[in-house]
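User: Can you help me understand a structure? I only have the sequence.
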Amino acid sequence: MEDESEMIKRKKLEQLKKQLEESESQEEAEEQFEQQKDAILRKLLTPEARERLGRVKIARPEVADGIEQQIIMLAQRGMVKGKIDDETLKKLLRKITENQKKDFTIRRR
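Assistant: Let's start by predicting it. Here is the structure, written out as tokens:
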């Protein structure tokens, strides 16, 4: 009986260790991805645009993620000439937020 329970405990412990290692490696991969994304954005954005994007990220993280993905995609397609300045970033933000706005009407009975 004790041998079986010890064996079960050992297997559980091994499973937990494996899960912990997998989650740590996943966190490392996510951190590395974020670092690469930040490095790319540093090359593509002026300091003012990066600052604005940082403020947007605090207020509306989903919008910031969308704009970051769009900027990187545009750069990969070769559509970014030089650095993106604050005015260009504002235009991109307006386009994204206009597309995300939902129209609604209030009906009276």
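Now, to help you interpret it: The chain has a mean pLDDT of 87. The domain at 2-96 is CATH 1.10.8.140 (Helicase, Ruva Protein; domain 3). Let me know which part you'd like to focus on.
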